[in-house]
Automatic annotation (TrEMBL):
Protein name per its UniProtKB record: Acetyl esterase
Top-level taxon in the UniProt lineage: Bacteria
Gene Ontology BP terms: triglyceride catabolic process
Pfam families reported for this sequence: Abhydrolase_3
InterPro entries: AB_hydrolase_3, AB_hydrolase_fold
Transmembrane segments: none
Species per Swiss-Prot/TrEMBL record: Polynucleobacter kasalickyi
One of the record's GO cellular component terms: cytosol
Gene Ontology molecular function, alphabetical: sterol ester esterase activity; triacylglycerol lipase activity
Domain Alpha/beta hydrolase fold-3: 79-271
Amino acid sequence: MFNHYKEAANAQAQSGIKSADPLTQPLEQARQQQEQYFQTLNQDLPEVAKIEDRLIAGPSGEIPIRLVYPQTKEPTRYLIFIRGAGFWAGSLDSHARTMRTLALESGCVVCGIDYRRAPDFHFPVQRNEVIAVLEYLKSQQMSLGIHGKPVLFGESAGATIALSAAQALRDQNNDALAGLILFYNNAGGFKPEAREYSQWVWQQYLGPDTPLDDAQATPLLGSVTGLPPIWQGVGADDPLITDTNKLAHQLKAIGIDPQVKTFPNLPHGFLMWTGSLQPALDALRESVQVMKGFFTAE
């Protein structure tokens, strides 16, 4: 287990598989390469008690979900994990380590969602699929061995989708969540000054019919009042740290403790490295303790 990101990254680079670039590769080729890259971070996965894959009905067709059980004791609290990968990549397998580690560290059932990817599908499809999964789990708690209100746990693009879903639920007067754990969100939306990849990501997510300043699609342009408790984690070396800080400022402005932790020397996407980078594992464990507090306070 490495204590510094550069050491862990150098060791991973020996695999010879690099992160994909959808701006210079055909999209499907980039997705395949990105999946191979993710799998280099998913070696020697920790054992869990049970994994169950299901297909559930959703607003745009069936939604694949994966339930990760850390132990057989039930009923158990649960969380919904929403992956990042820029809205365009990733799968139920790409973040296998994160989901398993979350389950083992928290003692909760983790439900991962294989939401539809951009640009094949645009906002609000992804947000609405999260809400559909939330409703499904609530209706099936007894048969699934889970209970209570869940936490939405999102990282990167997944954190943005989680925040957007929480705002939509609030607008429906639906008090369905115990809280939000958001790692390095990109919820500030399209930025003309951002690097080309970041601009591309948001253009693909929004599609041609959603304005760049749409407040429902871009959570930090909307209201943050009336939301469940929020905790944020971000690396000090993350180029998207401004979005985390902006949400913190917005919460503070309305009298809410922003609950944000900046982790030194960590880049964007560091949760993927919990198998080889001790500070990443420590950050995940810290978020788990906060999540347990959300459950206790419910």
